[in-house]
Design a protein that fits this description.
heterodimer, A: 339 residues, alpha/beta, Rossmann fold, 2 domains, 5-stranded parallel beta sheet, 4-stranded parallel beta sheet, 12 helices, 39% helix, disordered C terminus, B: 424 residues, Urease, subunit C, domain 1, TIM Barrel, 14 helices, 31% helix, 23% strand, globular
């Protein structure tokens, strides 16, 4: 199988097969993270433009590291240092970047849909590294990879998302990915952050329920995704932090409502002692550091697929080692046969 | 002399629907008679309207011409050329220019510019409050003397119930309608589209339909206090329409208009493309159904475009950052035919009423085809296939979600003051 899309803007339009393919591809790159020598020459000579129009540390470093471990060079644009501050439009800014001939643009932006808008205006592949309150596709993929590693499957699990879901792009990407594998969602948080429309954003027949009671929300959970309280995206008068801790903090006592082998994900950065208690954050069920490691694998897979796919010369890659090559080629064959 | 021959003359106010010839003598209609009965001399210009509909000149109650102040997006000249192509013979321009049309000298500037450069009649709407800031009453009487036909703080609502009451009391004594952009700004704050499943899915900040209907409810109650003529601009929500219907049933002087984009598109059509961003935003499926019913049953008085040009440099940006509004003149009639007439929801006559007698009634004037009436006519086809291409528009802006759409029927010729201002 080969991806249908030139860009990776969202997980919502992808099928379960395509999502499964991306996860399988990522698995190849997970192994490299365990090698003493992690650098490949797969994308040598290629350039990845990292345009972060919104602050980011871990995602930018993760994409940058992924590019470098594939042998690609990076160019970095950060909003503070850019001419956006001088009044240049987003379109002009990305056209200038494009004129420096990168092979792929990874972008983050505070406005939902900004990567779609840019992708319509550029010929190179665009990867959405998080747009507003829309999606964060690579985070959704790395979360799924982490779940699959720990639980052995991503099918038919009970997933609880805890917190400010209305303003969370991570929640949306997780819902769009995991509902396609039959996972059932419990969305739990203060009612103003969990609007009823969220029950309908998944595919037809998806099980997405809401509750404002954490005990109910955690009942029988296999996976708990704890979200950071994002004050920077809220228009409403914010809930008081004390109330939030009182009602929604994931602590050891509440965790007992979930299945004993339940795992805990957090997209970071974590507010210890707010949405999650330190003992839970550091406990055996927490996967937060695996998520970070898996993030690099997923982003290597995405860069590899979109950039090598974009060359379109059939040869794909030249250098060794190429962990993803064989499978990608085989899958491509079978896709052509079946579509 | 201009003779429009063999057309199907359709005039809801004059109760005409028949093949007729119309002779125009300068600025007035001279004769309306059965085909072949009007004698013609060799100086008479003849237009054969065989197969076409000849209607009273269309009136648009709601447009933004951007002059003075934002001439890179539109001018009175370019906007009215687009209006003429859309079949409009008179357009009301909203006061949110730079400076705001809140005093007689700005009104006179607009009237003067219209006189020297406009293709169609330009009827300015004055601001209700100084600078449309929602604090003090604008010099409404002086603006009326200079030519305004209504008042509005369009772009935003009249800020408070108290000010709305003052404006309405005052406008009642001046016999001017108050055009309201109904919006509870606290409920709509930060919103870029209608709140619903689509806004939630797209992660775009939503505004609920109640943001509009709460303000309509407030204003209807102030009409009960004041007896002023209230006109709800670009009504989009089912609950707002319900308020207007109730007010009408109680005999209150409340009217409303609906835009072609609100009766054509819904929030589910929104993608990350600022040509789908307008205020009020595209509403829910059930709102559109209610608007279609209201257009048919008489609750809605007029179709108005809310023509809102924004030059590409302003509009081709992130959805969140783009200004609200789309072009409207050139697609209004074609969308009305497509959505209302060809679907069997409205008769052609009712549709024509929504572009002519309906808006005229809102302004307190007449619009019909009869000897002595102004020589303004809109001639259109109901069966010619054509494709709208915004790149060919005389407008300075390109913000239409309908570019590339193929229509069945549309404007063919527009006559203002006895002269063609547009002819295909």
């Amino acid at each position: 199988m080969i991806h249908r899309f030139r860009d990776l803007l969202a997980l919502e339009p992808l099928t379960a097969d395509e999502l499964g393919f991306l996860l399988d591809q990522s698995k190849q790159f997970q192994e490299i993270q365990r090698h003493p020598l992690k650098k490949l020459a797969t994308l040598r000579g290629k350039t990845v433009a990292l345009a972060f129009f919104e602050n980011s540390t871990r995602t930018r470093i993760s994409f940058g590291t992924a590019a470098s471990r594939l042998g690609a060079d990076t160019m970095n644009l950060q909003a503070e240092a850019s001419s956006l501050k001088k009044g240049e439009s987003l379109l002009d800014t990305v056209h200038v970047l494009d004129a420096m001939k990168p092979d792929c643009l990874v972008m983050r932006h505070a406005a939902s849909g900004a990567p779609d808008f840019v992708a319509r205006n550029l010929d190179i592949p665009v990867i959405n590294a998080g747009d507003g309150t829309h999606e964060h596709p690579s985070q959704g993929l790395l979360d799924a990879l982490t779940i699959r590693d720990r639980k052995g499957t991503i099918e038919n699990l009970n997933v609880t998302i805890l917190g400010d879901i209305q303003h969370s792009r991570v929640a949306r990407s997780n819902i769009h990915l995991l509902t396609k594998f039959g996972c059932r969602f419990n969305l739990c948080g203060p009612a103003i952050w969990v609007p009823r429309e969220l029950e309908q954003i998944g595919p037809a027949g998806a099980s997405i329920r809401r509750t404002s009671r954490i005990e109910e929300g955690l009942e029988g959970a296999d996976v708990i995704l704890v979200l950071r309280v994002q004050t920077e995206r809220m228009y409403e008068p914010s809930l008081s932090t004390d109330d939030y801790i009182l009602l929604y903090q994931l602590n050891a006592e509440r965790l007992r409502r979930a299945k004993p082998e339940a795992i805990i994900l957090h997209p970071g950065p974590m507010n210890r002692g707010v949405e999650i208690s330190p003992e839970v954050a550091d406990g055996p069920q927490s996967c937060v550091l695996e998520q970070v490691t898996n993030g690099i694998a997923v982003r290597m897979a995405l860069l590899f697929l979109l950039i090598s796919g974009a060359t379109d010369d059939g040869s794909q890659l030249a250098e060794e080692p190429q962990p993803a090559r064989t499978e990608a080629a085989n899958n491509k064959e079978s896709t052509h046969a079946s579509h | 002399m201009l003779l429009i021959k063999n057309g199907r003359v359709l005039d809801p106010a004059g109760k005409i629907d028949a093949a007729m010839d119309i002779l125009l003598d300068g600025q007035k209609i001279s004769t309306v008679a059965t085909p072949g009965k009007i004698p013609q001399n060799k100086d008479t210009e003849i237009f054969d309207a065989d197969g076409l509909i000849v209607a009273p000149g269309f009136i648009d109650l709601h447009a933004h011409l951007r002059e003075p102040g934002q001439e890179s997006s539109e001018t009175i000249e370019t906007g009215t050329r687009a209006a003429a192509r859309g079949g409009f013979t008179a357009i009301c321009c909203m006061p949110n220019t730079k400076p705001v049309n809140d005093n007689a000298s700005v009104t006179r500037f607009i009237m003067d510019r219209a006189k020297s450069s406009a293709s169609v009649r330009v009827w300015p709407i004055g601001a209700a409050s100084v600078g449309s800031k929602g604090e003090n009453l604008a010099e409404i009487a002086a603006m009326k003397q200079a030519g305004i036909v209504a008042v509005s703080d369009d772009g935003k609502p009249i800020a408070t119930a108290k000010l709305a009451r003052q404006v309405m009391e005052y406008c009642r004594s001046l016999d001017l309608p108050v055009f309201e952009h109904a919006e509870d700004v606290s409920l709509a704050a930060g919103g870029v589209m209608r709140e619903g499943v689509t806004s939630t899915r797209l992660g775009l900040r939503g505004m609920p339909g109640a943001a509009e209907s709460i303000c309509v409810s407030r204003d209807v109650q102030i009409v009960e206090l004041t007896g002023a003529r209230l006109h709800i601009a670009h009504l989009s929500a089912k609950a707002s329409l319900h308020q207007v219907r109730g007010a009408k049933q109680r005999g209150l002087p409340v009217t409303c208009e609906v835009t072609p984009h609100h009766f054509t598109l819904i929030d589910e059509d929104v993608v990350y493309d600022s040509r789908f961003k307008m205020n009020p935003p595209l509403a829910a499926r059930e709102d559109r159904e209610a608007l279609l019913a209201g257009l048919a049953d008489g609750t809605v008085d007029a179709i108005a475009t809310d023509h809102a040009p924004h030059e590409p440099a302003l509009k081709d940006v992130e959805f969140d950052r783009a200004p609200f509004g789309i072009l409207g003149f050139e697609t209004a009639l074609a969308l009305a035919l497509e959505q209302l007439v060809h679907t069997g929801r409205l008769s052609i006559s009712r549709m024509v009423e929504l572009f002519t007698a309906g808006p005229a009634r809102v302004l307190g004037i007449e619009r019909k085809i009869a000897a002595g009436q102004p020589a303004d006519l809109t001639i259109f086809s109901v069966d010619r296939s054509w494709t709208y291409s915004v790149t060919e528009s005389p407008s300075k802006s390109r913000n239409s979600p309908f570019s590339g759409r193929t229509f069945i029927g549309g404007p063919v010729a527009t006559v203002v003051d006895g002269r063609f201002v547009h002819k295909m």
